[in-house]
Amino acid sequence: MKICYDLRGFNVSLQKTGIGWCVYELISQLARQSSPQIRGFNNVTNPSILEIKNLFKLKIAGVPIHRSFLPDKIHQLLWDKGIKSFSKFDVFHSPWQNFYLPNTQNHTLNIYSIYDLTTITHQALHHPNNQATEIIIRKNVARCHGVIADSENTKNDVQRILNFPREKIEVIYPPLREIFRAKNIRPRLSIHYPYWLFVGTLEPRKNIITIIKAFNLFKLHRVFRNYRLILVGKNGWKNENIFQAIKKSRYRQDIIWLKYVSENDLAFLYRQAKIFVYPSLYEGFGMPVMEAMSSGCPVVTANNSSLREIAQNSSLLLNDPENFEELTDYAQKIVIDQHLRNELINQGKKRVQELSGNYGQQHLKFYQQLLNEK
């Protein structure tokens, strides 16, 4: 089997976070096998010195990468005109849902990964630039032969919203980075106080203002005065209200924003946290929840979207993610009730094992299934 992977999503940043980690792990796993034959495709999506440098730097497990200096718009135009592309491959897989798929004219199996449809279902929670992704998604779905979803929730959305055949959608849960399973880590951070932890982009969808309100209420109790709230994640859009909420908090000195941290430091933060809070309004998967559970950190998350599916009975679920009083109540219970805390930790680790599988082999099996049906 000859497979070509679309690697254009690596151009802007080579940091292995989120989807980037999934793509990196998938290709690395398959490259360690004697078969299939793996290749990569990359181009300059927005010609700049940074992207051209990254284009030449990109190397994944010795996989040969075809590099094109044609911008995305040119490739899109050629593909739309029916220029036969990637016909020497059995499979072309685009693991980034915000790039156009080539028109393989059925010569090559077109596979498309979808992580969530929030740009369609929750447009108000996205930057206007991201809302344009709906056009790309709908065009790609009409052009692909199979979809890989990261959760049953996303699979249901793809079938319901995009009217894509359910039997052509495969659920493959994202792989967990080994650092969150490692026994020995070497963090640079040194923290000697109890804290709540949140990991994710600072944007409206993550519902961080509810976390801050809950933390303020939590801190009113004298026994919790030494607690702090640590926010880890890059700066997102429409975050002015988040920083305003921090500024207005009487405990603003105890709210810490660490932006991007190394994998070792992140693993350390998960393991040392008293509670991981993730009341997101909607998630395609919610990788930080899985990372926290694997690290032995009790989780409070929302009873919605894929979070309900991923957490199940291993976390405390908020029926209303914006109910900060309920979040405060759950946090207090986890801190005070050691039996509950231990139960959540044990159930969380068990759940991670249930979600874990051979990421590369699961993809190969799906490719082969669709090739046999073609």
Question: What does this entry look like structurally?
Answer:
The protein is α/β, with parallel strands linked by helices and 374 residues long. The chain folds into 2 domains: 2-175 and 357-373, 3-Layer(aba) Sandwich (Rossmann fold); 179-355, Rossmann fold. 41% of the residues lie in helices and 16% in strands. It has 15 helices and 13 strands. The strands form 2 sheets. The protein has a 7-stranded parallel β-sheet with strand order 3-2-1-4-5-6-7, sandwiched between helices. α7 (152-162) links the parallel β6 and β7. α1 packs across α15 (359-373) and α8 (208-219) packs across α13 (324-336). The radius of gyration is 22 Å and the shape is elongated. The chain starts with a strand and ends with a helix.
List keywords for this structure.
15 helices, seven-stranded parallel beta sheet, alpha/beta, six-stranded parallel beta sheet, Rossmann fold, single chain, 374 residues, 2 domains
CATH homologous superfamily (4th level) name of the largest domain: Glycogen Phosphorylase B
| Major sheet details | 7 strands, parallel
Biggest sheet, spatial arrangement of strands: 3-2-1-4-5-6-7
Class inferred from helices and paired strands: alpha/beta
DSSP helical segment count: 15
Can you identify the CATH class of the largest domain?
Alpha Beta
Show unreliable segments: none
Strand segment tally = 13
> What is the architecture of the largest domain at the second tier of CATH?
3-Layer(aba) Sandwich
Roughly how much helix do the residues carry, as a percent range?
40-55%
The total tally of domains equals 2
* Rg, Å, rounded: 22 Å
What is the residue-mean pLDDT, rounded to a whole number? 91
Sequence of secondary-structure elements: EHEHEHEEHHHEHEEHEHEHEHEHEHHH
